[in-house]
UniProtKB/TrEMBL annotation:
All copies of domain AB hydrolase-1, residue ranges: 27-266
Keywords carried by this UniProt record: Hydrolase
InterPro entries: AB_hydrolase_1, AB_hydrolase_fold, Carboxylesterase_BioH
This protein's record includes keyword Hydrolase: yes
Entry protein name: Alpha/beta fold hydrolase
Gene Ontology molecular function: any one: hydrolase activity
Coiled-coil annotated spans: none
Length: 283
């Protein structure tokens, strides 16, 4: 595994790459959750490196990828276009298997619906979206998002990594995380400053990204003509039961599972199931 810096049509992007697979192996892109980064999923992806050429990129304003000025919201359609720009910069002629967690799953679906000629299949891990009926009623209006409000209030600066670690361990979204996963998050989720460390994904960026959650997932799913698998958490999932059933009934759905004992952070808790789904969709 090594990190590369890419010049893409959407601007500079940073990515982790696993390139030990043999020539002719399929290409896999993995997209991360809001507020997270590619390094968090290295433990998940490393066992797949013999089977795929793997790229896991940092979305704009996350991890090692620059964000620039941030407005009120970051459109997930734009993040999906960024994803396609990354794959174009790496292997423009290859069909890609797109997998992603949370926002990463949702933007992978948006990318696949818009660029089906570039996509071989999808694995969606607890993708978040505005429930379909609410999205239809809202149109283009931004729906109130408590996650965005919470993210905007996050503490950004710490005197050192140890203090940040103590603030997160066993609390909030980190409650179910292993020590190894928390350390992986901190490694690329913090940047050094003159006074200590600061969040790589600034609270304003995280909040704006949450506010940009797509209203177009229902339409993208209807347009999807590639095989896919859906994995959802049991507790705190972002896939409501009604929408889960719609995904599961799709003619191109290979499998839809809600895994017992998991939360929204399924890739950290059941990496084996996520890897199995990726291998199954790849065929």
């Amino acid at each position: 595994m090594h990190r590369i810096e890419l010049a893409t049509a959407a601007g500079p992007r940073s990515a982790l790459v696993w390139d030990i697979a043999p020539a002719g192996a399929p290409w896999l892109h993995f997209a991360h959750a809001t507020g997270m980064h590619s390094g968090l999923y290295a433990r998940l992806l490393a066992p797949l490196a013999d089977h795929f050429h793997i790229v896991a990129s940092d979305s704009r304003g996350h991890g090692h990828s620059p964000g620039g000025p941030v407005g009120d919201h970051v459109r997930w359609d734009d993040v999906a276009a960024d994803l396609v720009a990354v794959t174009d910069a790496v292997a423009p002629a290859a069909p890609w298997l797109l997998a992603g967690h949370s926002m990463g799953g949702a933007v992978s679906l948006l990318a696949a619906a818009a660029h089906s000629d570039r996509v071989a299949g999808l694995v969606l891990v607890d993708p978040p979206f505005v429930p379909f009926a609410i999205a239809r009623a809202a149109g283009d209006a931004i729906v109130a998002n408590p996650m965005a409000d919470q993210a905007a209030k996050r503490r950004a600066d710490f005197p050192d990594v140890a203090t940040a670690r103590a603030a997160y361990a066993g609390r909030g979204v980190f409650r179910s995380w292993s020590d190894a996963d928390l350390d992986a998050y901190l490694a690329d989720g913090l940047r050094p400053t003159a006074d200590g460390v600061t969040l790589a994904c600034a609270p304003a960026w995280e909040a704006a990204t949450f506010r940009g959650v797509s209203h177009g997932i229902e339409a993208a799913l209807a347009a999807l003509d590639r095989p896919f698998a859906l994995i959802a958490g049991e507790t705190g999932s972002t896939v409501p039961p009604a929408e889960f059933a719609i995904f599961a009934a799709h003619p191109r759905c290979r499998s839809a599972e809600r895994l017992a004992g998991t939360t929204h952070f399924v890739p950290l808790e059941r990496g084996d199931a996520v890897r199995a789904a990726i291998l199954a969709v790849a065929g």
